[in-house]
Write a structure and sequence with these properties.
Layout: H1 9-25, H2 44-48, H3 50-63, H4 68-74, E1 78-82, E2 94-98, H5 99-104, E3 113-115, E4 121-123
Antiparallel strand pairs: 1-2, 3-4
Helix pairs in contact: 1-3
């Protein structure tokens, strides 16, 4: 019988990193067609040094008011998100968000604006 993997910060951050790299650089990854095939890349600092990614991730966790243990516990509902869906994976363009927030930040999401009778702009 094999032992289950211990879920700690190093493991979870490695999984987040591997997912990002797969989306951008592994044609066999299910999401590659939406990322790497469209030219989405990872910044040089993160490609060459996973510890730079982990340093950034620790800062994000602290900014969210969480401990590393809380982040690990919630890792299944937190995702790496690019603020600009057309931009690359960089410290300036990335954040950790809930699955729901990430789903709303899609390039394909269409916004419609209407002007009401009163003259107000309404976004839908």
């Amino acid at each position: 019988m094999t032992k289950p993997k211990v879920k700690d910060f190093m493991y979870v951050s490695g999984k987040k990193y591997d997912g990002m790299m797969g989306r951008c650089y592994r044609p066999t990854d299910n999401s590659y067609k939406n990322y790497g095939a469209k030219g989405i890349r990872v910044c040089a600092a993160w490609i060459t040094n996973i510890e730079e990614f982990r340093k950034w991730l620790r800062a994000q966790i602290k900014e969210m008011g969480m401990s590393e243990a809380e982040f690990v516990d919630r890792s299944n509902i937190l995702q790496l998100d690019r603020k600009d869906p057309c931009g690359h994976y960089t410290p300036e363009n990335c954040r950790m968000v809930s699955i729901q927030t990430n789903a709303r930040n899609k390039k394909s999401r269409v916004r419609h604006e209407y002007v009401s009778v009163e003259g107000y702009v309404i976004s839908v």
